[in-house]
Specification:
Elements: H1 4-38, H2 49-71
Length: 80
């Protein structure tokens, strides 16, 4: 079972399957990115991780401030 020929065939099959899966996944991801760019959903500028965190924090702060101001008596930011 574990002679060098069968091990070589197994490794070649594993590498070929992995390479094929990588190729197909990369092709799908690239096509999805192109579609998002054409629909102007995907931002074109590349951001650092800390810039993405800042944008997320600002977006969540805006959502909580707008929901807390519209909720009236259910304001979570004020003590009871």
């Amino acid at each position: 079972m574990n002679n060098p020929g069968s091990m070589m065939i197994g490794w070649i099959a594993l590498i070929a399957a992995g390479g094929g899966a990588y190729y197909l996944a990369k092709k799908e991801i690239d096509s999805r990115r192109r579609a998002q760019e054409l629909a102007r959903i995907r931002p074109t500028e590349k951001l650092e991780w800390w810039q993405k965190v800042q944008q997320y924090d600002q977006a969540t702060a805006n959502q909580t401030s707008s929901s807390s101001s519209s909720s009236g008596s259910n304001n979570r930011n004020t003590p009871p």
